[in-house]
Amino acid sequence: MAEPFARVYFPDGTEDFTARSPHNLLVTLFARTGLLGLLPFLAIVAGMLVRTWQAVRQQSSRIASLWAGAWVVLVSACFGVVLEGPMGAVVFWITLGLALAGWMAEREEKKSEEPAAVPLPRAAIDDSLPDHP
Questions:
Q1: What is the pLDDT of residues 30-70, one digit of tens each?
Q2: CA distance 101 to 67
Q3: One-letter-per-residue 3-state SS of the chain
Q4: 89 pLDDT above the threshold of 70
Q5: Radius of gyration of the chain from Cα atoms?
Q6: How many angstroms separate the CA atoms of 37 and 24, rounded?
């Protein structure tokens, strides 16, 4: 299966070419970068999971659909070489960025809708306190 590839891209290479991608993003990432590369990526995945859950719980369909799109690409990368080339990687990282930007914009919007805390005048606080002997 890998022989035609080896002939085209490695014409001076050996006759026996048996190495191939494991077709799993996490295995490939660990094989190429070790724990030093795998752990930050798993932190990104954990952040995706938390933000997706928040979007679903808040019933924000626009943001949840962006998170779902990023998940589709990520899950398919666990069964194929989707993120190893630009066709899947560009879509994944752009979708992930849009989902995060939408989440941040929604959070800012909710902050602006909340009424600001207005401090009470000192006299109102003193009048409400009971007198002690």
A1: 888 899 999 999 999 999 999 999 889 988 788 899 999 99
A2: 11
A3: CCHHHHHHHCCCCCCCCCCCCCCCHHHHHHHHHCHHHHHHHHHHHHHHHHHHHHHHHCCCHHHHHHHHHHHHHHHHHCCCCHHHCHHHHHHHHHHHHHHHHHHHHHHHHHHHHCCCCCCCCHHHHHHHCCCCC
A4: yes
A5: 26
A6: 15
Task: Tell how far CA 42 is from the center of its chain.
Answer: 9
Structure token pair of residue 118: 């207005």
For 42, the token pair is 């798993």
Cβ atoms 103, 63 nearer than 8 A:
yes
**Cα–Cα distance, 102 to 117 (Å, whole number):** 26
Tokens of residue 87, six digits: 């066709």
Name the burial class of residue 114, with classes exposed (0-12), middle (13-18) and buried (19+) by CB atoms within 10 angstroms of its CB.
exposed
Sign of the dihedral defined by the CA atoms of residues 122, 125, 130, 132, in that order: negative
Whole-prediction pTM:
0.66
